[in-house]
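Quick one: structure tokens for this chain, please?
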Amino acid sequence: MSVSQKIIDLLQDKPNVAYTITPKPVANKPISIVPKNDMSCLVKGLIFKDNQNQQVQVLVPQGNIVDLDAMFRHFGRQFEGVKLQEVWSLINAKELHTVPAIPQWQNMPTFIDESLLKKEELLLDSGDSEQLVKLNHDSFSSMAEPCEIGSFSSPAPVMDESNANDEAHILESVKRFTERRIKQRLDETLELPPLPETAQRIIKLRADPNADINDLTNIVEIDPSLAAQVVSWAASPYYSAPGKIKSVHDAIVRVLGFDMVLNLALGLALGKTLTMKALSKSDVDEYWQNAVYTAATVEGLVTSISREHRPSFGMAYLSGLLNNFGSLIVAEIFPPYYQLLTRAKSANPHIHPPAVEQHTLGVSSNQISSWLLNNWNMPEEVVTALRQQSNPMFNGEHAAYAKLNYLAKQLLANQGYGSILPAPIDKSIFDALHLNEETAKETVANILESGNDLDAIAEKMRG
């Protein structure tokens, strides 16, 4: 690809602006790293809307988190992040890959974090996936003259990828938001439901080498709503099952198989554990869509791996299904702050969600979900997958499950689906999983072609 001619024309129309086109550095980590030189900075362009629903452009250092409250204090206007689907529609219409960080692109009012004006060299996102616009301080300052300037962002936190201190972080975060409450209330805030009885039975069944289809059928059918969900999943046009699926036994034998139903039922049982009182209908919709699409993508990726390198299908599928389980727990523990966190994520799609959570709450949903599932004695493969799914460079035990979740979500994002921005995927991720990169991309494209069927599955799960 190359920088759009319209972007070049926009730059050339600016007086006193000298620039060069330079290759974009390849980042191996989910959070892009600013150049080591403190006087050089990668600049990210974001699209917000104000309280009049007018779209505006916001420019910040690529590794910084935007503070919406600080923007309100500086400019006296309420801002919200624009939904990624709207952003993708905008940049696709302009045949771009990302939002350009060129001030006043599309004649939008532009708000610039003042830290950018302290840099000697700036590397602006050009809208191209491979190239940046490089210019010096004076040229950028000249472009920034008509724009609004303020201090409204700060560096994203450096994530601790070790799980050694997760419980301490969670407890400290709860205390931080409950410091005015008496200890009894604090204990109540942290108290979460025990592992559901159905889930306990399924885990016990998993450990039984003599377990058969009838044992699993009996457990699932004890919970009528769970049984209905499993049957609905199997009956979806996505699986093209011949004839009508009338029972859990049918779902196992004719469509999904023992291993998949076992893990599907376990994931659905866990999803019913929490109250979801803090979630809006759209939040619940988004949760199940995320679960269904990620699980389907993981399913497709695993089947593309040769048998000698293939991780456990059941563990991988369950990890994908539960990938966003931490968001439910965050809503359960911090109900007054869940919407605050949702706004922060929407405003910062360029920052990986766990870093926004760490910045906002002092703890990430990955930490919380893995901590809880570990306390529930869930399989180590799933605990590790959820804890390390945002860390593609993790190479410890059960790393394949974490990498599959990371890869599934990023491949979906690169095809315009999900709540994170498109980003390059390091070849080492595909190599570590023994996956062909082109095959993986084709797998995801095929899954998205069945989006209506997956949406129908998600719709039934919400009930």
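The chain has two domains: 5-155, 166-191+274-461.
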